[in-house]
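Risk register update: the risk of archive-format incompatibility is retired. Evidence:
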Amino acid sequence: METYPFTDNTEKKQYELHVGNLTPKIEYIKNKNGEIYLTHTEVPSALEGKGIGSQLVEQALKDIERQGLRLVPLCPFVAGYIQKHPDWKRIVMQGINIG
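Archived output:
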């Protein structure tokens, strides 16, 4: 699968992939305690079913781990990705149950 440019758009508080003129995104909230809440994932309908959302989540999780943040996955898509890839539970904030 093709890899697309990934950015952390801190101004808009969202992670983004750049796929042509389309921008799949994950919105987030960071607090000063070193926690990040992933609140909403959005993939344009033209890109659905192509693994773009999973690629976006994986890149976001790598960035969160690199920054040493504790993850609170409020978005069901992100939580589902972590259920399928349980090794990522290592960055989930203690006490958060993903199933």
